Each structure stands twice: as structure tokens, then as C-alpha cells.
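Suppose a classmate hands you a notebook page containing two proteins, each written out with its sequence and a corresponding row of C-alpha cells. How would you begin to make sense of it? This section walks through that situation. The first entry is reproduced here exactly as it would appear on such a page.
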Amino acid sequence: MDLLKNLTVLSLEQATVLPYLTYRLAHDGVQVIRLEHPVYGDPNRHIGENVLNEEQMNSYFLCINAGKKALTLNLAEPEGQDIFHRLIGELEIDVFTTNQLPKNYKKLGIDYETLKALKPDIIWLGVTGFGPDSNEGAYDPILQARSGLMEMTGETKEAPQVLGIPLPDMGTSEHAYGQLMKALYQREATGKGAGINLSMFESSLSWLTVPITFTASFNKKSTRRGNTHEFFCPVSVYKTSDGFVYLAVGNDRQWQSLVSQDIFKSLNTPAYEKNAGRIADVQRLNQLIEEITINHTAGDLIQLFKSITLPASKINTLAEVVADPLVARRLLFSKDERTGAKITLAPPPYMTPWLEQSNKSLSFPPRFGEHNREIYGERLGFTEDALTRMQERKII
């Protein structure tokens, strides 16, 4: 059942953290309306290549904004705030989200108390870098650096590295998704809305379960270890004759399975029989393993590892990931009715009933202010002349 398809979310969003959250909600069939400033808009509209040959629809923006509608509105103007408050009531907004700095909440008329007075059961979500008491700006790499995520990423004796994906952004989005689901459940049970403040910094810290406990409780230093694992060996990347494989031996039984194979029999020594012995000689052991794997193709090695139920994978390029049969059948798509352009989107974490019913297709990422006339005109009743005047005065 599409339990969420009758919900409407109004999101004053930009960059990644909230757009990814509302993109996830669009997978559930939620009606998502994104709000942008009528002059500046979402900066991500200008990032990446201009693949559609039109302004403010660059490639980076297209990745996580399908399935939404888009309005422009100047909340710095009293008239803009009046329109915004009408949107809350007349569209019966269920959830409002923003990643504005907290100092702007009251100034823009978007604070929880104001919206709660307009719609008592509204669910309000404010995502900030460091909490509602901080107005410090926060980009994903800054959060990675401050939270320790970057300290845990990279080679042992090299500089810390940024993660390959923006985990503070997207991880916070997932945490926000869970908080919204709890708030919706609470509203269903009690009729009460909720005000949720979510810190990207706190979200990022929550992923460091082992490092923080080990550091604070046992005074044990945790730091980056490249491709190896602190507690298990061999766990690493190994060169093959035509690429790389990642092998993860998680226990002594798996190790015995590995060294029982002819090409690895030279490693079947008492010193390596137990994980502790392998960990103690991790660097040399990994070199010995790679001296073997370099003489075989990744495909042959993966076939061998699978035959003995040993966790391993070829390290795929992104093109190979997209072509993987397990991935290809889960990809999402979006087609532009105006130009016929079609984009492929990453698979969802879960194929929702809404996506199944829509044949894994979402409406095309909205153009800047694309739905102004539909929502302000048809839903709020503004005339064409009024809309034109508001546009000229940069209200919308």
C-alpha cells in the first residue's frame, strides 16, 4: 500500500542533505514541493555540465531531484512570507523541512512555533551543521574533518582522505528519514505534530561506533589503516593480472579454506593458522598474497573464492556497477516530457510499492520555478496578472 502518497512535503532546500531526503520521500510517492529563492535558487543547479543546454538544469542537480515540484519564493519580503503561510494552510502541508541557518528561521517566518500556530499537527524538520544553537556554515568535507571520519580514511602513513561519497550529507538524510517516520507515527497515534532539530555533525559522529568507544573507554588509538582491517586479516585489496580484487577473511575457518587451495598452499603455516598471527604479520602476509594474485585474473580468483564461500569481489568501475545484473534491474529512470531527454538514477535502498507501480520512473527534475503557476495560480487562486507582477518584483 502507498501509505505516504497523500502526504505533502514543503522543503526550503538546497545543496544535498535535504534534496536527498526529499528525493527518498518521493520514492514513497510523497508529494514533494521544493522552495527556492527567486533570484539565487539552489546553487547545485549550476554545478556539473549543462547537459540539457538550458540554464539551471546542470547534471549535478539532476541526480537527486526527480519526482518533485519546484516553486520560487522570496521569504525575505513580507508578501513572500504571507504567501508561504498560505501554502502551509491551503496546501495542508504535512511536513516542512529546511536547511537554512537557525538565525534565519524567525526572520523568514519559517520557525516551528510560527508554523505550528498555522497548522498544529505540522511536522517541522530543521537540518543544521552543528545544531540549532549554531550558525556555523557546514559543508560535507568540513564535517568529515571535524567528526573524525576523515581521520579514519586513507593510508596509514599518508594524509587523511575525504570519503568517496558525502556521508555527512547523505547519512544525515537517512537519519532525517527515520525521524520523520517516527514523527508521522506519533502524529497518527496522538494527533500531535513535532519539531525536529537534526545536526549533521551529530549524525556524522554516530557512525564512529568502534573508534569512539575504543578511544574514550580503552584509550586505544583508532586511525586510518588503508584497505586493511584493524581486527581481521587478510582483509585488503590485491592486484590481479587485470585489475584488483577485495578479499575479506573473517575467521580461521575461512583462512583454512583459502590455504587448502593449490595456489595458496604456500601460506598454510602454523604462524598464520590463527587470526592473531596473521594480524601480527599483516604487511608481509598481504605482500605474499599479492605475489600469488598478480599471476591470475580477477575473474578466475573470484570464481575460486566463490567456490569455497569466501567473501570477495572484483573492484568494479562505476560503468561495471551500472551493468551488473543485480543493479540494472533496480535502476530508476526519469524522462523529460518537454525534450524527451532521459536520465538514469541510482537504485533506491528499497524498491517501494510506489516505484514498482510507476515502473521505476519518476517525474523529471523540476525546472527553476516550474510549478509557480500551477500552485500559486490553480491552488492559491492568484490571477495571471498578479503572478506576473510578483515575478517582476522578485517575490516569486
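The notebook's second entry, a different protein, reads as follows.
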Amino acid sequence: MKKNVVITGSTRGIGYGLADAFLDLGCAVTISGRTSASVEGAVSNLSTKHDAERILGQVCDVTQIEQVQNLWDATVAHFGQVDIWINNAGMNHPRREFWKNSPERIQAVVNTNLTGAMYGSQVALRGMLDQGFGGLYIMQGLGSDGRYVEGMTLYSSTKYALRYLTDALAAEMQGTPVLVGALSPGMVLTDMLTSEEVRSEEDWEATKRIFNILADRVEDVTPWMARQILDNNRNGIRIKWLTRGKIMGRFLTAPFRKRDLFGDAGG
């Protein structure tokens, strides 16, 4: 059965990869981003390989509740219902001590990563409870497990909060026809992770060595995650790509299995 999927922040990176994967699996997808140019570009690119009738583009700044509600309403008007809603939109920042971040940057990161996810969750849960079905998934990330990473206190604090939000919402939805779950893609090579703006140049070579052991490309991770989401019928699930066992296995085989994820990008 075809599912209608809404993904916030889906004009690039993991969000775009998930959109592509869901379309490959026969779903209809609503693409969203903060600017009309980014949305139109993503829709145009996806339409070259998928049925354009299964793709809807909608501008949405997740920090604006009215735009988040419009994202839901536009999808329902176009496709009839929302089966899956994914809170993916996020904002990173350069690695630095927390006290060096400006008030404007703190506000922007918290508003996008945390408030935006809260708005998306509120709109999706209300709509899904009204229609009597649906699944809400929240993208987690660095810091969700509580692990400290130098220079990432601001970003990781929002992701740690998202873990609590996801678990609490799953508890609230217990006994209802609505599912809530977490998505944990692990280390995925996107510009959010590797751009010159956010990376630390002084230890970039060491960082690349770790990435070559643990990281994956978007096109490797997102098809698996999309299938897991479509197959899921359990509330409170955590769909995790980079498991502890996989991490151990990669470190053990690293001396014999050379991976170069940056070779094609010249990074």
C-alpha cells in the first residue's frame, strides 16, 4: 500500500536521501525546506527519476508554527492523508566552546533543532489522532546518547533533548493508533557534517580517519531506513543504523578493510 510521507528539511542531505528512497519504494512524498528555490530544485531533481505526481513541494520554516501547519494541510489537500511524518530539519554550527556562541546562533540552533521538532510533532500528532492513524519519527543525532563531544555542546544539547521528547511522546501515544519512533542514522557524510563552516581544520585529518571507519554515505543509509519505517508497527521504536556491534566490527576490520569516503569528493 502506498504511503504518503512528509519530511521536514528534505531538500538536501539525509532528508533528501529519505525522500528519494521512499519514492523508490512507491510512496508519495512532500518535500519541504526554508526557501522556494531549494524546494523547487529538490522537486525538479527528484522528478527526473520519479513520477512527478507523487512529489509535492512546500516551503516550510519549522520555527514558524503556521508554516508547519500549512505543511500538513497542503499534504492532506494534495494526497488525502499523512501516513508518515519525519522531523528531520536541523542546524549545525562550527565546533567551539559553548560560551563562544553568539545569542543569535544559540537561538537559531535551538529553534530549528528543538522547537521545530516540537512544532512538527504537535502538528503531526494532532492530525494523526484526528484521522485515526499515522507514524511520527524524530531524527536524532550526535549527543542523543548523552556522550560528550568537544565543541558540540550547543548542537548536542538539542539532540539529547530530542531523545527525551521522542520517548515521552511515545509514552503519550501508548494505546492510540499513532506510532512514535526515533531515527538514528549514525555518521552520515553530508555538508552538515563535513562543510568547512562546521568542521575543525586543525584536526580534520584525524577526523577523516574516524569518518572512513564509521561513516556512511547518504545513499547507503537512507534506503535501509525507509524500509524499516515502512515495515514498522511498534510504538517507541529506535531505528538505528550504526549499532554497537557494527561499530566494533568496523574498528576490528579497519586495518584490513580500507575505506575512502572522501576520494570522490577530493576532501
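A careful reader of the second entry would note: The chain has a mean pLDDT of 88.
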